[in-house]
Write a structure and sequence with these properties.
mainly alpha; 0% strand; 78% helix
């Protein structure tokens, strides 16, 4: 009874922590290895298994079509069992959400093996429910919308649980980035499809990959922790952190890729040239900012590490030096401006002053978080301010041709 209670409450010995993570992994790995061998035999005799739904979703860098079709073939016995049982699709959908909510609570409590496997099984249920609805001809727009919304709740529950667990560490930051990216990826797809642009095959991290990499990372992480820090009551779970970092980077890249794809498609279909017109100046402005940033960053490091200035104050001084370099390059090379220098310098000074406030204030805010190095805070804030504030104002305010000024065609 004591052993059973310890397993339920999570008060486990290092050996028990290993087996709670490794036990399901051994069983599932055995099943999938045997299935892979059988699938390779089938592949050699009959060719690849065909699954119209899986093939319609396309492939990605992190999961090619061979892997997707093999996985569809492997879970086919489970799918047929659910189909023949008569269970309604909505029951499978709600079961998927309940498992994801339980996974989030488990992860928040530090039960990573339990949370990881629950999230994986939640993903399998999410794969089955749509197939079940289509097989029984019960597909409706309302059902599709509800399924998509519940998927967002499921992802948020798991990443929210991880954020709670890592709330006192630096890992909370990439966890929140992963949470935002996981919401943006389907949102951009929905906005694109509403405008007539299909983006379902664009990007490296779709939901199936998110569940696979994060779920497996969380499920197996207690094994390594039990070997490295067996007495730590709240280990870092290094394998899970790798999965979170991968998710944070890949979802943001996928969101940006889809956004660029949608804007490009809409620009071409509408006869506009928004992206084409601004691609070259944006690249040159970025290169100018890079040169200025090197000067800025060098000064900031000298002031903080050598002189002993506070990081926010050093950031403000760095922005002044970077601004002088950036103005010269942008005027001559990026925008080929022929406007009068003094008024233009006044506008640039205004943008630089507000940029310095945003940068120094942003660094000060980020440094409120625990275990954040000032250089990481500096880099994150600089990129955000440069993209969202500096470039639009440089293009449309500082270096835009004034009334009566000749327009010089960019080389």
């Amino acid at each position: 009874m004591d052993t059973l209670l310890s397993w339920i409450t999570g008060d486990l010995t290092p050996a028990a922590r290993v087996w709670t993570a490794l036990g399901p992994a051994v069983l599932l790995a055995g099943y999938f290895v045997v299935a892979l061998l059988l699938y390779l035999v089938r592949y050699a005799l009959k060719g690849p298994f065909h699954d119209p739904e899986m093939e319609s979703r396309g492939e990605s860098v992190l999961a090619n079509m061979f892997f997707r079709l093999y996985f569809a073939w492997t879970i086919r016995p489970l799918w047929l069992g659910v189909y023949r049982s008569g269970i309604p699709p909505m029951a499978v959908t709600t079961l998927s959400v309940l498992l994801a909510l339980a996974a989030g609570v488990s992860l928040a409590a530090g039960r990573f093996a339990l949370g990881g496997w629950l999230y994986i099984f939640s993903g399998i249920c999410d794969l089955i429910d749509g197939r079940l609805a289509r097989a029984r001809n019960k597909v409706t727009k309302a059902g599709g919308a509800l399924d998509s919304i519940l998927d967002r709740y499921a992802d948020a529950a798991v990443l929210g649980g991880l954020a709670i667990y890592y709330r006192d560490t630096w890992v909370m930051v990439p966890t929140l980035f992963a949470l935002v990216g996981s919401a943006l990826v389907p949102y951009i797809r929905a906005r694109g499809e509403a405008a007539g642009v299909s983006v379902k095959e664009v990007g490296v991290m779709q939901r199936a990959e998110r569940i696979l990499y994060l779920g497996v990372g969380c499920a197996l992480s207690p094994i390594l922790e039990a070997l490295l820090v067996p007495e730590d009551p709240k280990p870092l779970h290094r394998i899970a952190v790798i999965g979170i970092m991968l998710l944070a980077i890949a979802t943001q890249l996928t969101a940006l890729h889809r956004l660029f794809f949608v804007l490009t498609a809409l620009s071409e279909t509408s006869g506009g040239a928004f992206l084409r017109e601004h691609k070259k100046p944006f690249i040159r402005n970025s290169m100018s900012a890079l040169v200025a940033t090197v000067c800025d960053f060098t000064l900031v490091n000298v002031l903080v590490l050598v002189v002993g200035f506070a990081a926010p104050l050093a950031t403000a001084f760095g922005c002044v030096l970077g601004g002088l370099v950036d103005f010269s390059i942008n005027r001559v090379w990026t925008f080929h401006s022929t406007d009068r220098k003094l008024p233009q310098m006044g506008r640039y000074a205004f943008v630089s002053f507000t940029s310095a406030l945003l940068n120094s204030g942003g660094v000060a805010v980020l440094l409120l978080l625990p275990d954040i190095d000032f250089r990481i805070a500096w880099g994150v804030v600089r990129i955000a301010v440069a993209v969202a504030w500096n470039y639009p104002l440089h293009r449309d305010y500082v270096f835009a041709p004034r009334d009566g000024a000749p327009v010089v065609k960019q080389a």
